[in-house]
Design goal:
This protein is mainly α. The protein is 77% helix and 0% strand.
Length: 320
């Protein structure tokens, strides 16, 4: 798969359209309530389909090994971003810890896009990767708070109980896990009745959702006052390093090409939903303009346009 092949994927083309519309300052916009509705649909669909796939093949040692790898990666990958931000980017410890948390957690939309592209190429990831995705959301937040020094201290405006509730019961994670469990329970036979909604409509809704993400990413970058060229460079380098580490680790487990690529994309992705919400509560002093611009405005487009074909090609080379 080449970059050109990925650019011809309908979801990616819609993302490019949204980015272009924002660049030329078009008034194109997706209403917020519709965007939220699409987000709920996508999380439910990806969780549900993953659960159904696992129910068809059953649990395996491969699945548990992948889950363990995902947790280890989520705990440790923020260390790379933190080191680059403090040593090269000259970012203070508090903000570096807040940003680093984003680069160990995951972007669900990046994964969904990668999964859709891979499936279209006949390289669908294993269904259990939805569970791995959910497991990788939280550990990086803990690492980021520890790195930020003092991030674990209580804040009067953000009690610890509220923080942990936000981390452990984040809406997107809860919907993913809940959908996954429902898929496990109903199995393939009962899924048939609702498949037209969650399968047939998935690609189309993803296209409109990515149109909105393209608009948001470029507008966020244009409005940011915290972004410097060196930080934009780090927001590109970190996904490449994280993804490469995950690529080799997943390949060492003997996973198939699609699943190895999906693992690389999870590690390369940067959260811009769950982690920002947690950082707002735990580290209110941190600059949201910095961590949102890096994760959403730089890393997200880079991963959609470059990392997906790059890591797919690399996984194919390793398999060969």
């Amino acid at each position: 798969m080449s970059v050109f092949d990925t650019l011809l994927s309908p979801p990616v083309l819609f993302f490019i359209l949204g980015a272009f519309a924002a660049l030329v300052r078009s008034d194109l916009a997706v209403p917020e309530q519709i965007a939220k509705g699409m987000s709920i649909y996508l999380m439910a669909a990806i969780g549900l389909k993953g659960g159904v796939q696992v129910s068809a093949v059953g649990a395996s040692s491969e699945m548990f090994s992948a889950a363990a790898l995902g947790i280890v990666l989520s705990f440790t990958l923020p260390l790379i971003a933190f080191a680059l931000l403090t040593k090269i980017g000259k970012v203070d410890r508090l903000n570096a810890g807040a940003v680093a948390a984003h680069y160990g957690s995951v972007s669900i939309v990046t994964y969904v896009t990668a999964s859709q592209v891979l499936t279209g190429e006949g390289l669908a990831p294993a269904g259990y990767m939805v569970g791995v995705l959910a497991l990788m959301e939280t550990p990086a937040i803990l690492t980021g708070l520890i790195l930020a020094k003092g991030g674990l201290k209580q804040d009067k405006s953000a009690p610890g109980s509220n923080l942990w509730h936000e981390v452990l019961f984040n809406g997107s994670v809860l919907l993913l896990i809940g959908g996954f469990i429902i898929g496990l329970i109903i199995g393939e036979d009962r899924y048939v009745g609702i498949a037209p909604v969650f399968t047939a409509g998935f690609s189309g809704i993803l296209c409109i959702f990515l149109l909105d993400m393209g608009l948001i990413a470029v507008r966020r970058l244009r409005e940011s006052k915290s972004m410097r060229p060196i930080l934009a460079g780090i927001a590109i380098v970190v996904p490449l390093i994280n993804g490469t580490i995950a690529l080799f680790a997943a390949n060492a487990l003997g996973l198939d090409v699609g699943t190895v690529t999906a693992f690389a994309m999870l590690a390369a992705s940067a959260s811009y939903i769950a982690v920002p919400a947690a950082m707002r509560m735990a580290l209110p002093q941190a600059d949201p303009g910095l961590y949102l611009s890096m994760s959403l405005a730089v890393s997200f487009p880079f991963n959609i346009l470059v990392s997906i074909p790059l890591f797919t090609w690399a996984a194919l080379q390793l398999a060969a």
